Amino acid sequence: MAMLLRRVWETMSSRTCSTGDSSARPSCTTESSSLGAFDQIPWDVLIQIVKLIGPKEAAKLCVVSKSWRALVSDNRLWIFFLQHQQEPWDSIFFGETTLGSGYPYQTLATGLSFMHIYGQRAQVPGSVIIDGGSGYCKFGWSKYDCPSGRTATFLEFGNIESPMYSRLRHFFATIYSRMQVKPSTQPIVVSIPICHYDDTENAKASRRQLKDCFQQVLFDLNVPAVCAINQATLALYAAKRTSGIVVNIGFQVTSVVPILHGKVMRKVGVEVMGLGALKLTGYLRLLMQQNNINFGSLYTVRTLKEKLCYVAADYKAELSKDTQASLEIAGEGWFTLSKERFQTGEILFQPRMADV
């Protein structure tokens, strides 16, 4: 680093600072608080140099003087560091300018210190992610794209006759054990599926009970930070939006959730239908049985659904086309599907086909 700075200084030492260069610097750069010999180097060149030493070394320059602090606090520098993180920059920008600004949402990132934002992200380790579902839960680390494993869903975990608190504590303890991490060392993000969203008093009481149990269990496990949010809102945030209608096709149910400014519009209505991936698999099995296509297990049917089936843009036009396709499954041989390929997914749009 010293050699790099020395070479830059030797190159720039013959230059004199023009009026335009000095005006581009913060007003705190004075004779009593300056960059020393580096005052003759243009501001943009200094930023390019600091980019080479990395965020940790750049942060240490803050204690040298006010001028160095002004230099390393430049948003352009920390935007560069954030852009080279594993997390996409557009997601960071959306999170900090839209979600972090509160309501009403601001459209411009005025007054944001990206140095502070980088510091906050550097201090927080990877979070534990638990993605609840209507069929099973997936869990893993926020820094990885794929989950580490899966288990039964919240309400079906353990002995269903046990109290809610005992089942949830067993649920979280099992996940932490499988991930080989102590609950007190990592923050956690829990996405809660919308399996039932009635506005009846019983439904509201059930949701309150589940929420209270969540909080009590995680508090007793000494979890440092918790974010519990429904899946539909997270899906909307992933699309970098705060308002919209989310259609979530799950394992057992499909939910249609209207969201405005990050809040579920319960008064408008949340639709939950008992039609999910499991129903599609069952319908394909029925079609295969009707066409005398023999199979060994439901796993075979699910594999065929995932590999061969699709949604037709025009269902009636698709009926007149040759849509035959084959797939080999280890241990069972070759399977050939035709109209079953698009008829399976069509029940999402015409539920009456499957008597739903």
UniProtKB/TrEMBL annotation:
GO terms for cellular component: actin cytoskeleton. CDD domains: F-box_AtARP8-like. It comes from the Eukaryota. InterPro entries: Actin, ATPase_NBD, F-box-like_dom_sf, F-box_dom. Residues 35-81 form the F-box domain. Belongs to the actin family. This is F-box domain-containing protein.
